[in-house]
Design goal:
The complex is a heterodimer of chains A (about 625) and B (about 750). Chain A has about 625 residues and is of the alpha/beta class. In chain A, the strands form two sheets. Chain A has a six-stranded mixed beta sheet. A four-stranded antiparallel beta sheet of chain A has the order 2-1-4-5, with no helix packed on it. In chain A, a hairpin with a 2-residue loop joins strand 4 and strand 5. In chain A, helix 2 packs antiparallel against helix 10, helix 7 runs antiparallel to helix 9 and helix 7 crosses helix 11. Chain A is elongated. Among the domains of chain B are: about 160 residues, no CATH class; about 170 residues, P-loop containing nucleotide triphosphate hydrolases (Rossmann fold, 3-Layer(aba) Sandwich), CATH 3.40.50; about 70 residues, P-loop containing nucleotide triphosphate hydrolases (Rossmann fold). In chain B, the strands form four sheets. Chain B has a six-stranded mixed beta sheet with strand order 9-12-13-6-14-15, sandwiched between helices. Chain B has a four-stranded antiparallel beta sheet with strand order 5-4-7-8, covered by helices on one side. In chain B, helix 6 crosses helix 7 and helix 6 packs across helix 9. The longest helix of chain B is centred in the first third of the chain and has 54 residues. The C terminus of chain B is likely disordered. At the A-B interface, helix 2, helix 3, helix 5, helix 7 and helix 8 of A face helix 2, helix 10, helix 11, helix 13 and helix 14 of B.
């Protein structure tokens, strides 16, 4: 009766989401199979649910026929009374009603148990799916994320899992109950009178035909509406996002004119879509009414012939009234299942994505890391057909500083990603203290490195916990000590709750520079033998920049460091400079060596200071 | 907000009116069906299609017999309602076809079928006819005859003769009274309704004697009402479809109008208003919120208007049929409402909290995704999984609860309906026994009860949908009712020709709305026409804010900005904007092509203009590298070009305008050093005649500026050229040293 209401998560779906644009899974059978295997441990429970659902529905369907007997008894009593031959038999009526009441109670109990179990199953499956996705997130190769947006992954967790959850909790049993209802009603009707049944069922093809036509029609308009709405929303997003530009170039009128056009187009598609999808209700209602009228007329006709009783008519009316709803539900089943399969397919596809390369079986464990890093004949490309690092070899001795320089977007972080084994090399090796990093577990390898990137990452929790992220065992004192080294202790203490201040969801309650200092403190706390640093650029003011620089200098003491460098002093003091262009390492050497070579690095260096030199 | 809805519904008032009329039709047609069903069961089946005990025609003999047992007044009333038709007359020919018996005998035809008359005559005729039947029975049943006769003789000393009793009784008023009393005592226990029903059987026999095909008559009756029901069904559907059509048109139309207004409004917003709402929120308000409102309008028309009509109508119809069963309806509605209230009370807070939990799980997942590298670098995968699991468990708990509530609701509702039906049958049967109700009425009452509860169920659904829509509506209304801060003057001034492009800041202070402190304080300087002025200073010093004031993206809080001596507030924004080529800090491109983006600045620019702008902006190489050149598609938000390319196209766009004033807000940050220099050189050539304002963080960019303004914390702390500032501006020197490492390179 409540139909299929949108779940709590379905916030933004188009009107009548389930009726909306049809989605199709590429492999329906396979996906559904996977879904049922995923639910494997519940298979007996699901079977039980099906049995209970069927039992509940059956009991519900038997009710009206027996109730009809009560009415018939009443009518016979009346006839007897009128002709003076008897009285209304209230004992019998009472017995019948009691019997029906018990049947209904049983039905409700079965329905209740069935629903309860199914709610548990579906919620649990949703929970497991989300958990598996979250675990998967951390084990996928980073390469996957080069090709997938965050939004897509998030949509797996919320929308897709929610669709599956809904189908399991509502649609699945709905399919069972609908089938049982339809079949059961036909049987019950046949048991009363076959002629009436035939007449009543004559509407069946009509119903299906009409519903089919409407779904088809509204499908078309829904797609149109969806497209137009996409245009409308796209234009809104674009114009609002670029509002300053629109203003500055006096584009408001043009923009509004364009908007009016697409808004009107949307209107034309939308009212039709809504109208046609809205037709479902009156038409099913009409068919239900039609059945009711037909049953009444023919029932009455047959009652005159004494073929059936008034109680039978009453039962028929009740049956016909509850016939159309499961029918229209069944008509929509393929749609619902397709949507579910499409959602499940996306989820499973994500869960089956390639993970990071398996760890070696007998990993090397370094007891004491000195910090000797060597690249030996390294070849790497994000795509196999586009090699960006070619036969690269370099050595960073313990405690040395390696500066990585190059213009923004040149791919300076590629080296970082390789060092930490976020990506696997195409060929060659990277060694730490002489050992192939692939012979170590990723965990051990990454433990050796501390990383401070420019796009800082903090999460919605207290500052204390954000610093402690790198070392869960650290005490509050350790955290504060690290913060002092990172030059951020003073700043944190000026905040409203000090170390307990919660960073808000968008991390807007502290500044960019302060975020950077916190991530430095995090690296300090981890105390790694090798460092990867990204120097601050223009988004930080001068004072903070100095603080950050000092903090980084402190951190680099006695550690092998890879620095994505912007500052001249860093570059000049580096033991090794790697000059990067378009992801490729073009030159390597010390500052002096590279200047005398007068190649790419020299050009880069001079361009920065060209004007200064000319003054 | 209410006012807004009224305003938007105005163009649709007629449609809304028609919808309501149609809804009344829909409800009424649907609710009349059970009435007719009751008629078919009560009259069509049980009374063989005969509505009452007043026959529409009666044989003269039968009429005379009946009149025998009526009081004189009743006799008059009956005879007044009937007309005597003598067989063989012209009048009789008219009736002959209907009553074939008229051929041989005269009949009485009911000519006054006014419902009052019928109601009055119904019990009279019923008794009369039944008494006649009784006398006929006496004549044919010897045992009964003996029995009655002996009582009669014993009491009144009258003895019935054998033969035609009616002739005898005509002259024996006492015997008539005796028989009347006898019949009355026999039927008194049955009650009025049963007497009439019994008499109807007599009427049927009388009709047969008149030569009427009674079976056909019964069928006709049923097909007549069946046909009416069919007609009503069609009408009801037509109404519903009409409502569907209108509601779709109204809802989408209103949301179209609203969306147009909000878009137009927002397009005229200044940056101040954008800041107060945030761009993301404005987008949601213009898209999702409007959709929500649209859905709600449709629901309101289709259900909220309909439910009360159906509910009240159902109650009225039900009570007309069986007023004694009112308490069943009251109980059903009461239980239903309290059930819904309980569910709301329990589930609504959970419903609200679930959205938060979903947001939370989204946030954690988003954080995990954003911090992929960091999480792995610190080996904190398990930590993240644990964090996610916590959010997941919280969500699962609440969603399990809600799932359970939803799942329990269904059997409970079914149970309620079923028990309702059982109670109606039980109570109804007693009503039938007491003759206060007929069987058909009881069946119809069941239908009404279900419809009434259904109506209340629909109404309660509104409590879920409407609050959500109201929130959306409020959010839309908030935008619509904003007073836009920056507007064109009523009597705009114009810039003098020839336009020079001198910009003067005169004691300008600016404060962001809601901020505790000024972002800019007492700023005064002049950017000379045709000169190059640079703005530098640490983050948050107010550089961008300052330049945004010139094209009036924000309004000065105090002081004035004058261009060629005219206050920017005194000219139309369009005229002002036409004078300024502006490159924003965040390069924004629109979907379309490279050319369409450049033409955005000036629709009439020639291909040569575009090409030369592209060349100056150092984008030629990049544009030419695309197979489609300037016709290359730009995706929404310029996603398919890199940051540096976007920046260069954004500069090219400003150049297309060939404006006498050019403002570049930190526009080189994404360019590599080489491009930066080349671009600056080219710019110097192409816009040397114009007034140029450049905001930057790079000292190297502005060493050659005619004038450098150094800002710190919203104040000017230095003004002059590079050499001067190196001498006497500490902040400038700091910035320069930290960037250029001056001591080392000199």
């Amino acid at each position: 009766m409540m139909g299929r209401s949108g779940g709590p998560m379905r916030g933004h779906g188009p009107p009548g989401s389930r009726l909306g644009v049809r989605e199709k899974a590429t492999d329906f059978r396979g996906t559904m199979g996977k879904l049922f295997r995923y639910m494997g441990r519940y298979k007996w429970l699901v079977l039980l649910v099906f049995i209970f659902a069927a039992a509940s529905t059956t009991a519900n369907i038997i009710g009206p026929k027996i109730l009809g007997n009560a009415t018939t008894t009443l009518v016979n009593g009346v006839i007897a009374k009128v002709s003076g031959t008897g009285e209304i038999d209230f004992v019998q009526i009472g017995e019948i009603l009691l019997e029906v009441l018990i049947i209904y109670i049983v039905s409700a109990a079965f329905g209740f148990i069935q629903g309860w179990i199914m709610a548990n199953i579906s919620t649990n499956v949703a929970y497991r799916l989300r958990r598996d996705i979250s675990e998967k997130i951390n084990h996928l190769r980073l390469k996957y994320y080069d090709e997938t947006t965050q939004g897509e992954v998030l949509s797996r967790i919320t929308n897709d899992v929610d669709t599956i959850n809904q189908t399991l909790s509502q649609s699945l049993t709905q399919i069972i109950t609908s089938v049982v209802t339809v079949v059961g009603i036909v049987i019950m009707m046949l048991s009363i009178n076959w002629m009436m049944t035939l007449i009543a069922l004559a509407m069946l093809p009509l119903t299906l035909l009409l519903i089919g036509v409407i779904i088809g029609r509204s499908q078309k308009y829904f797609k149109q509406q969806q497209d137009y709405l996409g245009h409308v929303n796209g234009h809104v997003e674009e114009m609002y996002g670029g509002h300053i530009v629109v203003k500055a170039f006096s584009g408001e009128e043009k923009s509004v004119e364009k908007f009016k056009g697409i808004n009107n187009q949307w209107y034309q598609g939308s009212w039709k879509a809504n109208f046609f999808s809205g037709l479902m209700i009156p038409i099913t209602f009409f068919i239900s009414n039609l059945g009711y009228v037909i049953v009444t007329i023919f029932g009455a006709y047959l009652a005159i012939q004494n073929v059936i009783t008034i109680g039978d008519i009453q039962a028929f009316i009740q049956y016909i009234r509850s016939f159309t709803q499961p029918l229209s539900q069944l008509a929509n089943v393929s749609n619902v299942l397709q949507q579910t399969a499409a959602a499940a397919e996306r989820v499973f596809k994500f869960l089956e994505e390639k993970e990071e390369v398996l760890e070696v079986s007998n990993p090397i464990k370094l007891k004491q890391v000195k910090g000797l890093v060597e690249f030996r004949n390294v070849n790497f490309g994000y795509n196999p057909d586009k090699i960006v690092i070619q036969n690269f070899s370099a050595v960073a001795r313990p405690g040395q500083k390696v500066a990585i320089v190059g213009p923004t977007g040149a791919g300076k972080t590629t080296l970082v990603k390789l060092l930490m084994r976020f990506y696997e090399l195409n060929s060659g090796v990277i060694l730490v203290d002489g050992y192939d990093t692939r012979e170590m577990t990723r965990e051990d390898l990454r433990k050796m490195f501390g990383m401070v990137l420019q796009d800082t990452w903090l999460y919605n929790d207290s500052i204390m916990n954000n610093i402690r992220f790198s070392n869960q065992e650290a005490s509050d004192e350790d955290v504060q000590a690290a913060a002092r080294i990172a030059n951020v202790d003073h700043f944190v203490k000026t905040l409203p709750d000090g170390y307990n201040m919660i960073l808000n969801e968008e991390i807007t309650n502290i500044s960019q520079g302060q975020m950077q200092l916190l991530t430095i403190a995090r690296a300090v706390l981890a105390d790694p033998p090798i460092l990867i640093l990204d120097e601050a650029t223009s988004s930080v003011d001068t004072h903070t920049e100095i603080l950050i620089q000092n903090a980084m200098d402190a951190l680099m003491q006695n550690r092998t460091s890879f620095v994505i460098a912007h500052r001249l002093s860093t570059i000049r003091n580096a033991d090794l400079i790697l000059a990067i262009r378009d992801g490729e390492i073009v030159e390597q050497g010390t500052h002096k060596e590279l200047l005398t070579r007068n190649g790419y690095y020299a050009e880069l260096y001079n361009s920065q200071f060209e004007i200064l030199n000319s003054t | 907000m209410k006012v807004r809805m009224i305003k938007y519904s105005k163009p649709y008032l007629i449609m809304i009116g028609i919808s309501i009329v149609l809804l009344f039709g829909q409800a009424n047609f649907n609710l009349t069906l059970p009435d007719y069903l009751a008629k078919i069961v009560n009259v069509g089946i049980q009374q063989k299609g005969i509505e009452n005990a007043v026959p529409e025609a009666i044989r003269g003999v039968e009429m005379n017999h009946t009149l025998l047992f009526l009081t004189p007044e009743n006799q008059t009333d009956v005879l007044n309602a009937y007309t005597f038709v003598q067989n063989g007359t012209a009048e009789a020919d008219n009736y002959l076809k209907k009553y074939p018996a008229l051929l041989n005998q005269s009949i009485y035809v009911l000519t006054d079928s006014d419902s009052n008359t019928i109601t009055h005559l119904n019990p009279i005729m019923a008794r009369g006819l039944l008494t006649v039947t009784f006398v006929e029975l006496l004549m044919s049943n010897a045992t009964l005859f003996m029995q009655v006769n002996s009582t009669l003789y014993y009491q009144l000393n009258i003895s019935l003769p054998s033969g035609d009793l009616f002739e005898f009784l005509a002259g024996q008023p006492l015997a008539v009274a005796f028989i009347n009393a006898l019949v009355n005592s026999r039927f008194s226990s049955l009650g009025e309704a049963f007497i009439i029903q019994a008499a109807i059987q007599v009427v049927r026999i009388e009709y047969e004697k008149l030569g009427i095909n009674v079976d056909q008559m019964q069928l006709n009756y049923m097909f007549f009402y069946g046909g009416l029901m069919l007609l009503l069904t069609f009408l009801a559907m037509a109404c519903t479809i009409g409502v569907g059509y209108l509601s779709a048109k109204i809802a989408t139309g209103m949301s179209r109008d609203m969306r147009k207004d909000i878009f137009e409004k927002v397009e005229n917003f200044s940056s101040t208003e954008f800041d107060t709402f945030s761009t993301a929120s404005l987008i949601t308000r213009s898209t999702n919120d409007i959709t929500q409102v649209q859905m709600a309008i449709m629901m309101v028309i289709r259900l909220v208007f309909y439910a009360p009509i159906l509910g009240v109508g159902g109650i009225i119809h039900a009570l007309e049929l069986a007023p004694s069963m009112w308490w069943i309806l009251a109980m059903a509605v009461g239980i239903l409402l309290s059930l819904i209230l309980v569910v709301f009370y329990i589930a609504l807070p959970k419903f609200k909290s679930i959205q938060k939990l979903v947001d939370r799980i989204n946030l954690v997942a988003r954080e995990s995704l954003a911090g992929l590298m960091v999480v792995r670098a610190f080996n904190k995968q398990e930590f993240e999984e644990h964090r996610f699991d916590e959010a997941n468990i919280d969500l699962t708990k609440v969603s399990l609860f809600i799932n359970r509530v939803m799942v329990i609701m269904m059997p409970v509702m079914m149970m309620l309906m079923n028990v309702l039906v059982i109670i109606i049958i039980w109570v109804g049967s007693h009503g039938v026994a007491d003759a206060t109700l007929q069987v058909g009425d009881m069946i119809a009452f069941m239908q009404y009860a279900i419809q009434v509860t259904f109506a209340f169920l629909m109404l309660s659904l509104m409590f879920i949908i409407l609050p959500r829509a109201l929130v959306s509506l409020n959010r839309v209304a908030e935008v619509l009712k904003v007073d836009i801060m920056i507007q064109d003057p009523t009597n705009p001034r114009h810039f003098d020709e020839p336009f020079k492009g001198e910009i003067e800041f005169r004691n300008v202070s600016f404060r962001y709305s809601g901020a505790p402190e000024n972002a800019l304080n007492e700023i005064s300087f002049t950017a000379q026409a045709g000169k190059f002025t640079a703005l530098i200073g640490p983050t948050g010093s107010g550089k961008s804010t300052l330049v945004n004031l010139i094209p009036r993206l924000y309004e000065v809080t105090s002081g004035a900005i004058l261009i060629d001596g005219v206050d920017v507030r005194e000219v139309n924004q369009q005229e002002l904007h036409n004078k300024i080529g502006y490159v924003p800090q965040n390069s924004v491109l629109f979907s379309g092509t490279i050319a369409s983006n450049l033409l955005f600045a000036n629709e009439n620019a020639s291909i040569d203009d575009l090409e030369s702008s592209i060349e100056t902006a150092q984008a030629t190489e990049f544009v030419n590298s695309k197979p489609e050149g300037m016709s290359t598609e730009i995706a929404q938000g310029g996603k398919n070009v890199s940051g540096g390319q976007k920046q260069r196209l954004s500069i090219a766009r400003a150049l297309v305008q060939k404006a006498p004033i050019n403002i570049l807000d930190d526009s080189f940050s994404n360019l590599d050093f080489k491009t930066d220099i080349a671009l600056r050189k080219a710019l110097r050539k192409s816009i040397s005649a114009s007034t140029v304002l450049i905001v930057t963080q790079r000292v190297s960019t502005i060493i050659e500026a005619d004038q450098i303004i150094v800002l710190d914390e919203g104040k000017i702390v230095g003004k002059g050229n590079h050499t001067e500032l190196m001498e006497d501006c500490a902040i400038y020197r700091d910035i320069a040293i930290s960037q250029l490492n001056l001591e080392e390179s000199l």
